[in-house]
Design goal:
- This protein has 12 helices and 13 strands.
- It has about 375 residues and is α/β, with parallel strands linked by helices.
- It has 2 domains: about 130 residues, Enolase-like, domain 1; about 220 residues, Enolase-like C-terminal domain (TIM Barrel, Alpha-Beta Barrel), CATH 3.20.20.
- The strands form 3 sheets. A 7-stranded parallel β-sheet has the order 5-6-7-8-9-10-11. A 3-stranded antiparallel β-sheet has the order 1-2-3.
- The longest helix has 15 residues.
Amino acid sequence: MLIRSVPPHLRHPRSIFPGMPNIMLQLAATPYTLHFRRPAPTSRGVLTTRTIWFMRAWDCAAPDVVGWGEAGPLPGLSRDDAPDFANTVAAVCTRFNQAGISDVTAAQAWVEQLTAAWPSLAFGLEMALRDLATGGRQQLWDTPFTRGARGQPTHGLIWMDDIDGILRQVEAKIAAGFEVIKLKIGALPFAEELALLRTLRNTWPHIEVRLDANGAFSPVEALDRLDSLAEFDIALVEQPVRPGQWGVLADLCRHSPVPVALDEELIPIRTPADRVRLLHEVRPQFLIIKPTLLGGFAVSEAWIADAERRAIGWIINSLLESNIGLNAICQWTSAIGGAQVHGLGTGGLFANNVPSPLQLQGNQLYRLSSQPWQWPDITA
């Protein structure tokens, strides 16, 4: 059975919390396991499943209008990847439901308190509340993309593999129309990776190449390796060294012939003061903005604003979300990111993803009104 509304046993929270007549907004969360179509190799191991939580927000006065969100830390990466995450989700929903919050603005202010310790949960709640505020139609922003009039370009992500496998992936992406390719480096011997890039550049000299080192370079070797990569007209290298080495990163950002982007470096930052200090001391060329890791759209926009004040570029990336989270990130990107090529997922990784209007055509994602949402029965 497919549902759009909150189930009957969740529609009347006044009966659950007697003596609290001012309750208006309510939250609920249900875990859901996404299954990868094929094992997905990453810098932190091979993924076959991913657990997320579908977040739902509604007003007791109109319980059939439901805002949907998605929360879920990525194991080994997210700040809130903790054994008690499921209990925290349940406890947060209970506290919210008992707080007597009567409007979305107050609810969003309440959620901001979660961003420091529980960023992916704050992201899911912010998403659900914004969806509720805009009518529960999964159209969180009004842009040509959200209306289906324009596509949103994305890069072609190349999964870790051997040299031949990587080249086959690149060839397929370029044949499909991708003009920006992102590759992981650091898993293979560096000499082999240089040979791969030489082949790639000789075969496809016109494409933009972005690299993600995931902290694979040691501080001693990092600058020499970036010097070697400069031969191949690399657009940027994400996180060349492990997070936490601000002095090393600052030196790389000053002297590297290849632009440096910060990615994992942003994850531990919890306060605006620390954010400003990082950007001031390191002065990277780019930031990789992942709302799931940073605590949602409002926090991500604060990162972007602080970056732009220092002439630092930025690129938005999704992070293995289901179509619910991906839809929100794509819409937000279309509202603030213009025609720049960002790193957005395509929704095709999971065998049991939520069917949605998102569709990849060439190198662009479209939101097609002819393909309606089909909501899972998450009450079973």
